[in-house]
Amino acid sequence: MYISEGIEDFIESLEVEGGRSKKTAENYQLYLERLVEFSGDIPVKEITSELVRKYRLWLNRYENDSGKSLSRTTQAYHLIALRRFLTYLSRRDIKSLEPSKIELPKIVKPQVNFLHYEEIERLISAIPNETESDLRDRAIIELLFSSGLRVSELVSLNRGSINTKRREFTVRGKGNKDRPIFISKKAAEHIENYLQAREDNLQPLFLNYSKRYKKPSTDGNYRRITARSVQRMVEKYARLAGITKHVSPHTMRHSFATDLLVNGADLRSVQGMLGHASIATTQIYTHITDQHLKEIHERFHSETE
Question: Which residues have a Cβ under 8 Å from the Cβ of 136 and sit 6 or more positions away?
Fold first, then answer.
């Protein structure tokens, strides 16, 4: 079996057997195609420790057409993908390098950014209340903060996805796993205000109002807002609100989780609401909440004898 053939089978197994999302499978494919770019389409049995050593060096020196190199974290993801690929081959008794031969570097987890409640209020206050797109933006910000949705999950929502009366719905997240989503009364009200202002019957919950979409169209997905548009929108209002830290849709998700933990939610419940497969992923917030509690103690209790 040649590497390209093995990659094709492996990627299919990720989605079919592993329950991985399409995006995860695409990332694995990209990382493994870099191996082929380095080594050529050789038989998998020719993947050796020496080849992997040279591949690591090649990744470290790699530059794209713009002269940009790969970060340490991205290099680590390439090796994780390779190790996972070798594990797949081993389980199917296809001769290649033992997965354990791939030593994985430690990945330094990026600092988690989150907004305090008063910063969320400033962010929302920076949004005008004049046009249909303004109403959409308010609804999106409120929904992100009150639900912990991933931006990819948010943009995939349709009108019928959310029950604003019950203020709950189900979303299909990573790995095609369903989880319940609960939203605040304020978020539900903003969504209702936005939908009442719309005069169309298109299915997407949130529409794009770019000029190029002015022509009538019955294709709802053509008008669906994109994740990139949501990102630009959040960044714009953060600047207008005078928030200097980097703010993205994922910052809102971090803020949701942090707010829950600071107010007494247990880690397992937060894991379920975020849709994390592993509790270890949710534990990144414990350091933040501990620090936040320390700041509260310093503010209100440091002078106490």
Answer: 194, 206, 207, 209, 225
Q: Which residues of 236-245 are buried (b: 16+ CB within 10 A; e: fewer)?
A: ebbeebebee
Residues 6+ apart with CB under 8 A from 55: 35, 38, 39, 82
Question: Does residue 234 form part of some domain?
Answer: yes
Read off the CATH number of the domain in which 289 is found.
1.10.443.10
The position carrying tokens 């299919």 is: 12
Question: Would you say residue 225 lies in a domain?
Answer: yes
Beta strands, E only, the chain: 168-172, 178-182
- Across all residues in the chain, what is the average pLDDT? 86
Residues 70 and 166 occupy one common structural domain: no
Q: What is the pLDDT of residues 64-112, one digit of tens each?
A: 888 888 888 889 999 999 999 999 999 999 999 999 998 887 766 666 7
Is there a domain that residue 34 lies in?
A: yes
| Contact residues for 27 (Cβ-Cβ < 8 A; gap 6+) | 77, 81
Active site residues: 150, 174, 250, 253, 276, 285
pLDDT of residue 305: 46
Task: Give the model's pLDDT for residue 219.
Answer: 57
Asked if residue 25 belongs to a domain, the reply is: yes
